[in-house]
Amino acid sequence: MTSLPPQSSPQPSPPPSLSRIRIGSAPDSWGVWFPDDPQQVPWQRFLDEVAESGYEWIELGPYGYLPSEPAVLADETARRNLRVSAGTVFTGLHHGPDVWDATWAHVSDIAALTHAMGAEHLVVIPSFWRDDKTGEVLEPDTLTAEQWRHLTTQTERLGREVRERYGLKIVVHPHADTHIDSEENVTRFLDGTDSSLVSLCLDTGHYAYCGGDNVKLIETYGERIGYLHLKQVDPEILADVRANEVPFGPAVARGVMCEPPSGVPALEPVLAAAQKLDVELFAIVEQDMYPCPPDKPLPIAQRTRQFLRSCGA
């Protein structure tokens, strides 16, 4: 009787190739929210550790945290084999044309540095309706019809000006405690703006925090997705945050944004949906954790980069 050859154990399938997704990280993942704050790590340490973690792309973070002189920043990033993917600006464009001059004064310096660093994107975050540190309510959490018109028309104006003057594309970032947050408000914003001028920076954590379905948004508005922030939410902490109407800043201090892959949304289907768009996309890791101990970010960043490699990125 001839014995059968021993059967080998099935080998695990290799992760799908996310060939169009460019992975990076940001100062936010090192607990950096402000240009200068004694609770934050020095910028040199951030650059050293983000490179040590295996990332090749970074964002500028709050303007003034990293060197704002292009030649200095170019030297510091190049010797660590890092490149800049985007700058970030904060805006209150729902207030209408009266805030344009002040907005442009803020945007122009950041756009100039972003362009000088060879990046092509400017992440636009709407202003908060309540203070992210104190929780003080600054204005109503819903917009009037007139304010919605201001928000859409002034954002289009910003997109046009930034493109014409600096060659950059704006990507608007839905964010907790702003007026562009939930599925309803995000879709209203997208439907009210010109796709040739305004794209979206989909932050997976913020959209889940506000009740949105990331994969559904990518599949429905794929042509508007211009950039990704990768982030997860702890569902148990989020439930308490929602039940007690905790402001975003204190929610972060409680750990509402958690280390992948322990939270929601699952990032594998989000990345797979983004890959199917068949366009080049940055996917920048942003784990909000301000404030945090200075030794906390590096091991999290290393584990997160390894997790994303296991996803094919």
From TrEMBL:
SUPFAM superfamilies xrefs: Xylose isomerase-like
Span list, region Disordered: 1-21
Protein name as it appears in the record: Xylose isomerase-like TIM barrel domain-containing protein
Listed Pro residues bias regions: 7-17
Organism: Streptomyces aurantiacus
Residues covered by the Xylose isomerase-like TIM barrel domain: 47-310
Matching Pfam families: AP_endonuc_2 (PF01261)
